Amino acid sequence: MATTAVILAAGLGTRMKSRLPKVLHPILGDPSLLWVLRTLPRDLNAAVIVVHHGREQVLAALESWRAQGLLPCPVTTVDQGEPLGTGHALQACIPELDRLGATRVVILCGDVPLTTPATVARLCASEALLLAMDLEEPGAYGRVLQHPDGRLAGLVEAKDATTEQRAVRRVNGGAYALPWPALRTALQELRNDNAQREYYLTDAVAAVARGQRVAVEVCAPEELAGMNSRMDQAALQASAQRRINAHWMAEGVTFLHPGDTLVGPRVTLAQDIVIDPCVRLEGACSFGEGCRIGQGTVVADSDVAEAVEIRPYCVVERTRVGAGAKVGPFARLREGTLLEPGVHVGNFVETKKAHLHRGAKANHLAYLGDAEIGEGTNVGAGVITCNYDGVNKHRTLIGRNVFIGSDTQLVAPVEIGDGALIGAGSTITKDVPPDALALSRVPQTSREGGAAAIRARQKQATRVS
Ligand code: UD1
Ligand code: CA
Fold it and tell me: Which residue, 35, 136, 221, 338, is most buried by CB atoms nearer than 10 A?
C-alpha cells in the first residue's frame, strides 16, 4: 500500500500579518511545517507539500531540513499557483500523486503543528478516516455531519451552513486518510458554487463518503488547533510547552518554574537535570544526567554531557560541553566551541571555534576565538585572542599547563609552547617556546613624591583661573 502524505502549505496566512509564510512561523523554535513533517511515519512512500505564497522561503527551509536529516521520508513540492481553495490544492497534486503511484493519501495542514505522531500513525494506517474535534465554540470550522452509525455523512463549511448545521459542535480538523482513486475522481468533479467561491476539499471528502465508509475519529482539540493568528501561535506554543515539560518531568527532570521554561521539540534531557526559571533550550540539544541549567540561560543546537553546570544568564550555541564542566554566569559560547571534561569558563568569557582541553580554565573576562587551549592551561582575566586582522581570521595555539597572565593579547597566528608562562599585560606577537617566560611590558617607573607634586600644580592652576 503506497501511502503518500499531502501537506497543505500554499495559503497566504493573511491574519498573521507577516512577511514570513505562515507555515514557517515557529512553535518553541521549530517552524510549524517542521512539526508536521516530524509526525510522519518513516515508512511513508513520500510527502508532497503544496506551496505557493512564500514558495522560495519554504523551499529553502525544506532544503536545510533535508541537509540536517530532519525529513522522515522523501519530500517533493507542488506549486499550486494562485490558491483557489483546499480542493484546488489537491487538484494541483494529481499529476504528482499519480507519478508517485499513490494508492492512498493522508492529508494534513502545514499550520496544524501539534497533532501527535501516534495520531498521524493511526491516520496513515486507516483506509478512510477524518479527524474531528468537539468544540464549545465551533466558530469558523467546517461542521462534521455523521450517520447514526458514526460514519461520515457530510461536511459543511460554517459560511455555507444552515442555522441547524452551525449548532453542530463536532468540527473538521482538516486531516484525512482517503483512497486515492476515489478522491481523484471526486476532485475532478469539484465546483466552487459556495459562499467563498473556493474549491473545497471537504466537498470531495463528502463525495468519497457517499461511495464508501469514511470513519470519524474525535481528537483532543489541541491536536488539531491551527495557527491563523499570533494569538493562535501563542496558544499553540503554550500547549506545546505544557506537553513537552510534562514529558520531561515524567522522565525525571526538575523544572523550578515550568511555566516560563521553553524546551524545544528536538531537545533531549537525561534524568536528574535541574532547570531554573526563564531557561530556553532550542534546536537539536542534548543534556546528560545531573546537569544544572541556570536562570535566564539560552542553549541552542548544543550537546552537553553529564554533571555540567551552566550558571545563570549564559548563551550557548552550536557548542559541545564535556562532563563536569562549569560555565558562566554570563558566559557566551558561540559556534564551534568544544569544552572537554572539567573545563571552567567563567563570567564574561566569549568563545568561538575554541577547543579547551581537559581541565583548562578561563574564569573571567576573556575572548577566545579560533583557539586551541591545552590541558590544564590557565587563561587569566582580560585575555584576548586577536584572531582577526581586518581581513582574515588566524588561529592561536596554546599548549598544556600554560599560564597566561591577565590582560594579555595574543596576536594570531601565534603558538605558545607547553608549560610557558606569559606575564600579565603582555602583547604576544611571536611564538613562545615551551617552558619559556614571555613578557612584553614597558618597564615600570615610580617617582618618589611625583603624585603629590602633580596635585600641588593642579591646585595652583585652579586658583589662577
Ligand atoms: C479548512 C476546512 C474546514 C476545517 C479547517 C480545519 C475546507 C474547505 N475547509 O478550513 O472544514 O474545519 O480547514 O483547520 O477545506 N491551503 C492551500 N491552498 C489553498 C487553500 C488553503 O494550500 O488554496 C492551505 C492553507 O495554507 C492551510 C490549509 O490549507 O494550511 C487550510 O486552509 P485554511 O484556509 O486555513 O482552511 P479553512 O478555510 O480554515
Ligand atoms: Ca479558507
Answer: 35
- Mean pLDDT of successive 10-residue stretches along the chain, which has 465 residues: 93 91 97 98 96 97 98 97 97 98 98 98 97 96 97 98 97 98 98 96 98 98 96 98 98 98 98 98 98 98 98 98 98 98 98 98 98 98 96 97 98 98 97 98 93 94 69
Residue nearest to atom 26 of ligand 1 (CA): 11
Q: What DSSP state is assigned to residue 217?
A: E
Closest CA to ligand 1's atom 25: 11
Q: Give distance in angstroms: CA of 85 to centre of ligand 2.
A: 7
Mind listing the pLDDT tens digit for each residue in 218-246? 999 999 999 999 999 999 999 999 999 99
Identify the pLDDT of residue 341: 98
| Residue 183 neighbours by CB distance under 10 Å | 25
Q: Among 8, 86, 192, say which to mutate for ligand 1: greatest number of ligand atoms within 8 Å of CB.
A: 86
Q: Which atom of ligand 1 is the closest one to the Cα of 53?
A: 26
3-state helix, strand, coil in the chain (%, to 5): 25, 30, 45
Q: Is the dihedral of CA 423, 428, 434, 439 positive or negative?
A: negative
Strand (E) or helix (H) holding 204: helix 201-211
Has 364 been annotated as catalytic?
yes
Q: Which atom of ligand 1 is nearest to the CA of 174?
A: 6
**CB-defined site of ligand 1, < 6 Å:** 8-11, 50, 80, 83-86, 88-89, 109-111, 141-142, 155, 157, 171-174, 200-202, 226
Amino acid 76 reads: T
Per-residue model confidence (pLDDT) at position 61? 98
Entry pTM: 0.93
Distances (CA, A) of 344 to 35, 65, 364, 370: 36, 34, 10, 18
Q: Which domains does the chain have, with CATH numbers?
A: 3-230 (3.90.550.10), 247-438 (2.160.10.10)
> Which residues touch 438 (CB under 8 Å, ≥6 apart)?
416, 420, 421, 422, 423, 426, 428, 432
Residue nearest to atom 3 of ligand 1 (CA): 142
Angle separating helix axes 180-188 and 201-211, nearest 10 degrees: 120
Cell of 363: 574564569
- Main-chain dihedrals φ then ψ at residue 230, nearest 5 degrees: -65, -30
